Model the fold of this input.
Amino acid sequence: MIPCTDRIRGWHIPASLRFALLIGVLTIARPGQESTAQGSETGIHVAPATALDTGIATQAVVEVSPTGAVSSIADGIRLVRPGGRVVVHAGTYREPMIVIDRPMVLEGEGWPTVDGEGDRELIRIRASGVTVRGLRLTRVGASMTEDRAAIRAMEVRDCTIVGNRFDDTYYGVYLQSTEGCSVTDNDFAGIPHASEALTGNAIHLWSTRDVEIARNRISGHRDGIYFEFVRNAVVSENVSEQNMRYGLHFMFSDSCRYDRNIFRHNGSGVAVMYTNVVTMTDNQFADNRGGAAYGLLLKEIADPVLIGNSFVGNTVALMADGATRLIVERNRFTDNGWGVRLMSSVQDGRFTSNDFSGNTFDVSTNGGSGLSAKFDGNWFADYRGYDLDRDGFGDVPHRPVRLFSILVARYETMLVLQRSLFVGLLDAAERALPSLTPAALVDPRPAMRPVAGEPTAGRSAESALRSTRVHSQPSPRAAG
Amino acid sequence: MTSTVLSSVGSSSAAPATAPHTALKVARYEISNIIRSRWLLAYCAFFFLATDALLRFGGDGGRALLSLVSVVLFVVPLMALVFGTTYLYDAREFTELLLAQPVGRGRLFTGLFLGLAVPLSLALLLGIGLPFAWHGVGDNAQMVTLAVLGGCGVALTLSFVAIAFLVAVRTEDRVRALGTAVGIWLVLTLLYDGLVLVGIALLSHYPIERPVLALMVANPIDLARVLLLLRFDAGALQGYTGAVFTQFFGGAGAAIAAGILLLWVAVPSLLGLRAFRSKDF
Done:
């Protein structure tokens, strides 16, 4: 706020107006405070008055259980004082959408189930400083008209959604205009046997900032993690697999980090679009196969940095279409159809110390002349040069773009002639006397042996996940 | 040796009930004969050394297998053709001797065919298999790939020995027959793919995936190559065009492919047999 008032002071605004502006800014910045004022959405629970419901929220801890004095979660929330705790005991709770309107902890013990019976959202967070933990959330039915979510946080700060299980849910967690929230250690299973149109996103972020998404296990959704207009997110150690469309899909989301995640067997892999400053480190992109499947698709991106990632068994491992100042370092491209596919719209790409092995095509391009990409010190299993001075780098430059890959880019059916003796001769002739392959795409100093290092990252994410699961299976972690 | 096989052939042919065994007897004799030939030993040693070197110096088994595919697709048809043609000429005197006995031509031809094809297949399987047994196979997927490679190698051996026999039976002159055999090899490995490549470039505006699929299935070397491609380049083949192939070979196509490889064994050997029956020695 201080910078704001400073700037306002700089403009010589009268003191009274300045005060009014300050109040206005504060109100906008803390929208959670006024949430109760606009609680007119459909489905908000208005409980009938009971003996318990004295209208005074004084209790620090409220116990909710199907057979106890307080038998609905909504009643529990009404009774707890701000900053208190509602402990939900095992059982199945079917009640209208639960609105959390005060800072508090909502905590399950023995995996209580909140059942939406296929027709409503389950929990809506309308206050800052809310924690939801240890619940099983199920049966949020698909809807063509609204994006129903198991947990939706709207216009709040500092919400924590940790260690919950979501199954048969349309959208899982939906953060909308939030700040400083975290979504960690959750399981998302999606609606079983649904088509792409009838599944939502497991973690959906719209216009939020300072988010942490960590150690979630996601499958069976449309997109595993979806970002739109997000700033400063850290996404780490998640496993997102078997989703209909993308394991991770983000647009217009600058300054985000993605570390040690695993994205595999997704319909179309991972797509990153219209974004500046993306850092992806030690992730694993595996087995994303199909006509439009990419391990990682970069589209209209500035300053992306890819370090230490593994790309294994994808149709196209890394597709760059309109990427500026792309830095690709110490990644492993193994057993993919196409290792790196660069469109001519790539500007100033740098590929350093990456390993390429077992790919049908290590590097390919659509042959445009506008492409500018530098390769230096990469290891290509196909490299046939020698190293007389024994410095670990080959003395003959390597051209990773085969003539055949250019032919296949033009006439795709030719792919079936791969590994034919005739094609081998064509490639050898072109390698000896390059005329068609782009002269710019050459590694002047190819490494003689793998240089990217061991793919430990993916495994660590998986083992970290496994250990947290072991701890959280019997009972959710005790309240903090 | 010849005398023993003659006496056994003669005695068995005297008893019609055991007649089918004649082919096996000829085959057994030819196998025992050919196993001692230096060419076969060299052939086996070549695969053994190549596989061993690839496993030793080429890194993991997957990459060794990948290199082996090119070697097998290149060497097996060529050597089967060359061995096959020279073998029939070398066995000419033996053939004439046996034909003077009451031995059916069909049985004799079958015996000669198995007598070469079986040792060649065994030499290939041993040459590739032993080093893998030695160094160990990486995982199940590699095991399957190795099996597909071995299967394709054996099918190619049978088919190209049959083609070689057909050529040798129909050509009097040994050098011309060899020339024809090498010509067939050149057409099927190089020219065929070159023509397909040009054809695809010329007709790229038409939906040619299925015709190309048919062309690939029609050439035994290409068919074997595509079957192996499905194991090594599965990622790329699941792109736009490749999907036609993965669908085909994922479904009934595998059976069709096996059937067509069998046809490539059956048709040349039947044609060769017909020529052998009517040949005036």
Q: What stands out?
A: Chain B has one domain: 21-278. Residues 166 and 261 of chain B are 17 Å apart (CA to CA). Chain B touches chain A at residues 59, 62-63, 66, 69-70, 73-74, 189-190, 193-194, 196-197, 200-201, 204, 208-209, 212-213, 216, 222, 225-226, 228-229, 232-243, 245 (CB under 8 Å).
